[in-house]
Design goal:
The chain is an alpha+beta fold. The chain is built from four helices and 17 strands. The chain folds into two domains: 193 residues, Jelly Rolls; 71 residues, Dockerin domain (Type 1 dockerin domain). Bound molecules: calcium ion (3 copies). One calcium ion binds next to strand 4 and strand 17.
């Protein structure tokens, strides 16, 4: 009985300290309110709201939309941090400014998240002319919602997509990242200066913490990833095939890739086609995700 009581206390304290690490949280549910800190956002250029992964998100038109959050949020100095957000993008052509705190498109003290034409995101983390970040993600430009979490812990910078570690780098340097720029979503200081353009797509649930917390946003599993491994391979098709003949079960949101309402052999074949990068449109219902 005593052991049980002790275990409960530990869990409660753990949850409290994790929550305390969040310094800013913008759910983007119809307004730009910061529900944790005091850095409410300002919509610029007619930035609107549309369906996000969690209720609504900011919708950027790629023309003149951005959201600014003031000059204090995102000044990390040399401390550990987490930058997290949900993104939906189909960018295959440009470098897009996604989220950053940067005064000039040149060497200075800044951080900047941009996408590129290969569909990945990068976090640049500079003090003077030394890039101590350059964490990149897996592709996020498939039109689906992805959770993206960048962390810095000491000198180690990491990138997580949908809950899976995709990149980790240790430059041995902890950049002092502090400047007078406004934290801005939807564009970069480099927009119009080096080929970078504004972001087109949706950003939802932008969160910042003053510790490195890979779990600041939850994992997300996508249609065809029957094994919940974070990528799509022949192993997923095998699970669907076994589910089709009732040897195991698979959630419709993972295995019903043709949206028929049941898991059958054609789903297994479609998953196999997707695994080898043939064009297959995933039609599963969305997997439920809770914050
Ligand atoms: Ca939202
Ligand atoms: Ca898989
Ligand atoms: Ca089906």
């Amino acid at each position: 009985m005593l052991r049980y009581a002790t275990w409960v206390v530990v869990v409660v304290l753990g949850a409290a300290s994790a929550d305390a690490a969040i310094t800013h949280d913008w759910p983007a549910d119809g307004d730009a309110t910061d529900i944790v800190g005091d850095a409410d956002g300002t919509l610029v250029g007619g930035t609107s709201f549309g369906p996000g992964l969690f209720d609504q998100g900011f919708v950027f038109d790629g023309v003149d939309d951005e959201v600014t959050f003031g000059t204090s949020a995102g000044n990390f100095g040399t401390s550990d941090f987490t930058i997290a957000f949900v993104i939906q993008s189909t960018n295959t052509t440009s470098i897009e400014g996604v989220l950053g705190k940067r005064e000039i498109c040149g060497f200075s003290s800044f951080w900047d998240v941009r996408s590129n034409s290969s569909g990945t995101l990068s976090l640049e983390l500079y003090e003077n002319n030394v890039n101590t970040g350059l964490a990149t993600t897996s592709r996020i430009n498939d039109g689906l919602f992805h959770t993206v979490v960048f962390t810095r812990e000491g000198t180690v910078v990491s990138a997580y997509v949908d809950g899976f570690l995709k990149w980790q780098t240790d430059t041995g340097i902890t950049a002092n990242v502090t400047n007078n720029a406004a934290l801005t979503a939807g564009t970069s200081a480099c927009t119009g200066a080096d080929g970078t353009v504004r972001f087109t797509g949706v950003l939802d649930e932008i969160r910042i913490a003053d510790t490195a917390d890979p779990n600041l946003l939850p994992p997300v599993f996508h249609c065809a990833d029957a094994t919940r491994s974070g990528d799509i391979s022949a192993a997923d098709a095998l699970v669907a095939l076994r589910a089709a003949v009732a040897l195991e079960t698979c959630d419709l949101c993972l295995c019903d890739i043709n949206g028929s309402g049941a898991v059958t052999a054609p789903d297994a074949l479609a998953i196999l086609q997707r695994a080898v990068s043939l064009p297959v449109t995933p039609l599963c219902p969305l997997c439920p995700v809770e914050l």
